Amino acid sequence: MNPLFLLFIAIPALEVFLFIEIGAQIGAIVTIALIFLTAVIGIYFAKLQGIQTLKSGMVNMYQKKVPVYELISGASIAIAALLLIFPGFFTDFIGFLLLVPLTRKILFTSAFRNKIKQEKQNQNKTIDGEIIENKKDEL
To answer: What is the DSSP letter of 132?
Structure first.
């Protein structure tokens, strides 16, 4: 079975389960209000983080650096905003994790750890050589 298909089934099932459990504990009206509140707060913080990331990227571009971290960070903030718009506690939790810069940095370094190690190893592989020409200048 396709893992993406399982995600489309598992995540909504988990969200429904969490709605039922949390709704039973704190009440239906409060649960619905909490879902709207997390969406509004999340979108507000996504906007703030997005503006901050954009400014940081512009500073890097003015310094003639490639804003790789800012590009990946901006994409994760967009995904976080999308997750926060969807109603649900699990998606809100993942969305808030993507909004916090510290957890974002931990996720990026763990995801790209192997790639960073390969680049460092490739930088250390320097081959010295000398070019010898057998032909002498002919006039």
So the answer is: -
Q: Collect contacts of 7-12 with beta carbons under 8 A, ≥24 apart.
A: 11/88, 11/90, 11/91
**Residue type (1 letter), 67:** P
d(CA 86, CA 66): 32
| Residue position matching structure tokens 């901006």 | 74
HEC letters along 87-111:
CCHHHHHHHHHHHCHHHHHHHHHHH
What's the predicted TM-score (pTM) here? 0.71
Rounded Cα distance between 81 and 53, Å, is 14
Q: Which position has the token pair 């983080």?
A: 49
pLDDT in tens, 69-99: 888 888 888 888 888 888 889 999 998 898 8
> Which residues, 6+ apart, have CB-to-CB distance to 66 below 8 Å?
60
Which position has the token pair 């009440």?
27
Tokens 């490739």 sit on residue: 122
